[in-house]
Amino acid sequence: MAFYNGSRINTNVGALNAFNALTNINAKIGTVQMRLASGKRINSAADDPAGYTIGKKLEGRSRSLTQALNNVGELKNILSVAEGGLQSINDIYVGIKEKVIQAGNGSYGANELAAIVTQVNDMLDEVDDIISETKFNGTALLNAQFTSKTFQTGADSGDSLSVSLSATIDSADFGLSSITSANVGSSTTLSSLDTAINRVSTELQNVGSLMSRLDVKEQTLSTSITNTEAAMSRIMDADIAKEQLELTKLQILQQTSTVQLAQANAAPQGVLSLFR
């Protein structure tokens, strides 16, 4: 601070010192008010260059993890749709097996067997309908076309998961497309149905296992997002209570500086008493 001699009036050093102090205080008040208004401790790179850089990196990672979490949720939705279709198909194949065993009743004549065949064929048609209608975003899931679909499940390269629903489960794949009264109750038909049920069950197991894995991944991502945002908040966000205390102090200093500036401006008038 410059030396002040009260008897020199050409340059009022005292007033300049008070003015500089008031200017600095006003600048600090502006900074604190910005922090209180925005809720952020760092509002520009000039406030804290290193902190701003780290904060933006953490913000970018948090947003990436959030999108990865959305991807996981989308995949779970896809698998839920596929699981529903598979469960329906499994129930139908089990029902068909029940009818095929019923056809093995030696007391049934041609009319009864024809009725069973008609019912079985209708149920097989429904299996094919479910396969063609089980879709997500226009993509069929159960016709062995949903293969090697990659989902980004993390914020870094390599954090991805490849998913395939590749089991072929339509009736033609098991030789069930030509059931007649002559073969509806045969051991060959029963064996084919057992193969179909086992394949659908295996695919259901794969889907269920993958959904369990995604549940864990979802929890991991949620925890990572929370921790990342907490770290970012520690760097970027303002402590409102602390900033309010700082503002109160600065407002008091602003008033005292204003008073001192007024007194410093009036001080040179005292020199006039020397001329009386």
Please give a structural write-up.
The chain has 5 helices and 4 strands, in the order H-H-H-E-E-E-E-H-H. By secondary structure, it is mostly helical. The protein has 2 domains: 13-39 and 238-275; 70-235, f41 fragment of flagellin, N-terminal domain (Up-down Bundle), CATH 1.20.1330. The strands form 2 sheets. It has a two-stranded antiparallel sheet. It has a two-stranded antiparallel ribbon with strand order 3-4. Helix 1 packs antiparallel against helix 5 (240-266) and helix 2 runs antiparallel to helix 4 (187-236). The two termini are 33 Å apart. The model has no long low-confidence stretch (mean pLDDT 90).
Secondary-structure map with pairings?
Blueprint: H1 13-38, H2 49-103, H3 110-133, E1 135-136, E2 139-140, E3 146-152, E4 160-165, H4 187-236, H5 240-266
Antiparallel strand pairs: 1-2, 3-4
Helix pairs in contact: 1-5, 2-3, 2-4
Structural class of the secondary structure composition? mainly alpha
Regions with pLDDT < 50 over 5+ consecutive residues? none
CATH class of the largest domain: Mainly Alpha
CATH superfamily of the largest domain: f41 fragment of flagellin, N-terminal domain
Helix segment count?
5
**Could you give the order of strands across the largest sheet?**
1-2
- In helices, the fraction of residues equals 55-70%
